[in-house]
Amino acid sequence: MIDFMKETKDQKLLADLLRNRDWLNKNLKEVQNKYSEKWVAIADEKIVSHGENPEGVKKEVEKLRSEQGVLIIRIPKGEISKPI
Prior knowledge:
The protein is α+β, with helices and mostly antiparallel strands. The chain has one domain (9-74). Helices cover 44% and strands 18% of the residues. The protein has a 3-stranded antiparallel sheet.
C-alpha cells in the first residue's frame, strides 16, 4: 500500500530550500551588512559559502556537502521592496 503521508525526497528538498529562504528573509539586514553584492550559499539556516560568482560558491559547496537543498543567491544592496 502507498503511504501518501510520507514525505518524498523532492518534497524534503523543496522544504529545505524554503526554510533557507525564510532564514534569509529573517536575517537579511545582517547578511546584507556582511555579504552585500556577493553570492552566498545557505544550508541548514546558515551561510556555508560566499564569493564573487555563483560558480565558485557552487564548487565550494560541492566540497562540503551535496548541493541539493542549498540556496545559492546573490545578496542585493540596499532596501528591497518585498521579501526574497
